[in-house]
Each structure stands twice: as structure tokens, then as C-alpha cells.
Design brief:
Layout: H1 4-8, E1 22-27, E2 31-37, H2 57-73, E3 83-93, E4 102-113, E5 116-125, E6 128-139
Antiparallel strand pairs: 1-2, 2-4, 3-6, 4-5, 5-6
């Protein structure tokens, strides 16, 4: 299990934009499983939406991307580099994510060619799919 400080040793994101709290497991270059504990004090809930807080889908996608970045940037040859979005494909949002949810984030790298790759990404809450899709990344 990696905590936030250990995650920061792998990926460059920092608060308030570090969107994962812990990594349960990862295999460099292959996969990662992480968690985001969604709480009522998240910065984005002030405006999305007052009185009805819902985690924005784009931030669920970002949480998945950071999880995939743990898998890719933990590879020895990628240490100190960054992984940027190259695209989001087939992303579907199936369940609202709200304060109190523990978002499980799973990314499996399914394609790689040079600095470009694709990760299959699934976010769940209590074993129910919240979001699912493919994330294309570029290592820079």
C-alpha cells in the first residue's frame, strides 16, 4: 500500500489536484489499483453543485489517469517524467460519486508503442461501476 507521500514520489501532481489517496497495488508498466476517499470538503463541491454535491466526471477521469500514471511512471525508465492525456475514448459515467464514497480506481495498460499508450480504466463505488473507458497517454 502506498500513501500520499509515496505516491508523490512517482507522479508529479500535488494538492489540490492530487486525486488519489492511496495505491493498493501496482505492477510497473502493467496496472494499478488506487482509491480516492471523497469527502464533503473537496474544493470542487463548492460549485458542483451547491446543496447537491457530485464529483465531476472529468475529475473521476483525472483520478483514473493518475492511477494509470502510477503504473507507467513507476517504470525505471520513466522516473521523473510525466504522463499527459492523449485522449479519452469510450468513457461512460454510470453512477454519481458523492461525499462519503470510496472510489476504487483500476487501470490496466492494454497498449504501448514508444511513449504512447492506452489504459483500460474502471472506477467503482461499492462494486458498482461509476465510470469506465479508455485513456490514451503520452510520456513526456
Amino acid at each position: 500500500m502506498l500513501n500520499k507521500e509515496q505516491i508523490k514520489e512517482i507522479i508529479p501532481q500535488r494538492e489540490p489536484f492530487l486525486m488519489i489517496d492511496e495505491v493498493e497495488e501496482y505492477v510497473p508498466g502493467e496496472s494499478a489499483i488506487a482509491y480516492k476517499n471523497v469527502n464533503e470538503n473537496e474544493w470542487y463541491f463548492k460549485g458542483h453543485f451547491p446543496g447537491n454535491p457530485i464529483m465531476p466526471g472529468v475529475l473521476i477521469a483525472e483520478s483514473l489517469a493518475q492511477t494509470g500514471a502510477v503504473a507507467i511512471l513507476s517504470m525505471e525508465e520513466n522516473k521523473g517524467r510525466n504522463a499527459l492525456f492523449g485522449g479519452i475514448d469510450k468513457m461512460k459515467f454510470k453512477k454519481m460519486v458523492v461525499p462519503g464514497d470510496r472510489l476504487k480506481l483500476e487501470v490496466r495498460i492494454i497498449k504501448r508503442k514508444g511513449p504512447i499508450g492506452v489504459g483500460e480504466a474502471i472506477a467503482t463505488v461499492n462494486d458498482k461501476i461509476a465510470a469506465k473507458g479508455e485513456l490514451t497517454f503520452a510520456i513526456v
